[in-house]
Model the fold of this input.
Amino acid sequence: MKNVLLIIMLLFFSAFTYAQNSFQNKTVKILPKSELTITGDTNIKSFDCVFDMGYLQKEYPLHYIIDAPGRMRFKNAILSLDTKGFDCGSQPINNDFHKLIQSEKYPQILIELLEMRLQKPGFANAVVNITIAGTRKEHTFPVEFTEGGISNIKGILLLDIKDFKLKPPKKLFGMIVVKDEIEIDFKLVVQN
Done:
């Protein structure tokens, strides 16, 4: 009888521990005040491709777990950016940008949030998978945030386009060349 009672207690405590470590669910809204820009540079001048936030879905389910002090892991936290939503300021630059990211074949850029590691209050390192033109790479970069009913999350993610097997277009017989490093600058305003 003692063994049966011991087994029941162990099962109860394991179920309790599992419940403590299970993923929590939450829905967040990305508000229209949010901004996302991809900035690139050529040997002549820089260019900005601004994302129209109207292309985002309004609500995102978040599945997360706090599994260590200061560390939050996420499951299926994917921000899908429709490549049609980017405007680089002129049709020729738009065409070059879409050719670079192969938007006809790959119409979305995916940013999957994997983990946030708190560094100090208001600052964390985000671990994300970025998928561009069918190639996925993991990146870690710093973000700044404020918490509350309305949260602000901002950061700059530096990427090397060669990591995504992208070939920048060359203009004027190779005299104008896009540099390999681009940055994704974002300021997300999120309602919890």
In short: The first strand starts at residue 24 and ends at 30. The two ends are 49 Å apart (CA to CA).
